[in-house]
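SEQUENCE AND FOLD
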Amino acid sequence: MTDVLTPPRECSFTPSDWQILARHWYPVAAAADIGAAPVAVKLLDERLVVYRALDRIVVARDLCIHRGVPLSIGRVEGDELICRYHGLRFGPDGACRAIPAEPGAVPTSRMRIQTFPVHEKFGLVWTSLDPSADPARVPVFPLWEDPDFERILPPSIDIAGSAGRQCEGFLDVAHFAFVHHETFADPNNPVVPFYSVKRNEDGALVGDYISDIANIPHGTEPFVPIPQGFRWRRLFEVQFPFFPRLTIFFPQDKRLGLFNCASPVSARLTRLFVPIVRNFAKGSDLQAVYDFNRRVFEEDRAIVETQYPEDLPLDLMEEAHIKADRTSIAYRRGLKDMGLGRSFTA
């Protein structure tokens, strides 16, 4: 029998949706940002602390079991997390090792903080609120493992909107001319040619979109010659619930891969991590990559934060659709197939 997970007191999701989402893996921080001090994060409204215990990263509930103080305001010594209030020391397994007020006391099993599974991948710290979560279920990004590709991890971006809305926007190909015309798209070319969408045997969603909309930042020279009439292929591959990948095919077998990892802080706040790979321009200025991608996602953020209802409607009768919405329609159906309900807002 599957263990019942308990939503946090201030949960902004319905209990049934939270139960489903809590069993998946999500990134909560860049591994490089976890150093000598504990870091407070939130996932699905659960307050967590992330810290480095010598050679390993630990994710725990951000709450001292003794008197309810956030452990993220404490400090780390060696592999021990020390509570700021009474100095209780906790090991990476969550067990209390010492109570300074009672030097000779042996801490009971009650003096234990809740820890969660951790997996480092794509430069990110992944965790699940399900203590028995299998690391094999962490989403995959095959191009990250390809030695021919350069790995890039831009800073995360917070979006005051739902993870479902953000992911659907990432999959949307009809908004380029209207939302991204200042960064890469052509405002005079809004046409979306027919494209195919399918579900693989493993449940992943695949959308294969080919058009003449370039993927080169305005005002920059292309790194390879672009033949006249070149057709740009964008391959979308979605791992549910919130992990769409995009591979953009350039001339001369050059490719750019983006992994949209939307971490649901709450039903109304998403922390977006986007690992990137490329097999061109390797070793060049990464700040330009950071800046361009930030501009693109800021353009998306300005839209996502205004959408209403904030919920992503899984009942297809609640919003109108056009033929260009093939991928987003399939995405909504996939979320519904997971068992998520009408009030799903993540």
In short: The chain has a mean pLDDT of 94.
